[in-house]
Amino acid sequence: xxxxxxxxxxxxxxxxxxxxxxxxxxxxxxxxxxxxxxxxxxxxxxxxxxxxxxxxxxxxxxxxxxxxxxxxxxxxxxxxxxxxxxxxxxxxxxxxxxxxxxxxxxxxxxxxxxxxxxxxxxxxxxxxxxxxxxxxxxxxxxxxxxxxxxxxxxxxx
Length: 157
Hints:
By secondary structure, the protein is mainly alpha-helical. The protein contains seven helices and two strands, in the order αβααααααβ.
């Protein structure tokens, strides 16, 4: 079984978290919402970072190693760190995709309208013909699932 299949199973189980007593702090909620807002731009960030590490054909105005003074510099180490950063973005994108795919269609619509297009809550639930309580319940469950997938919350039990 591939790691992707395992992660998909884990995320599908996360959508059932309402059975547990889960405490979501304001900070965890804020972090989860930031991740949800970044979902659509992660591909652009990843590709941009990959372009940054491609070999350059023109000479760079960066100082040579002999001009750097006493500071340690390794182009290999710098490249490895940039590649690790890209891999973190790729993993984040994969996790968000798994969470998004595991949500109910109405929650996916809320995610798109609220966090990707940046619309106000009141406009989103009005356009989706949801009453306020149902909307916030769906939204809370969605945020909890994202927060749990990224280890942002603690279970109280």
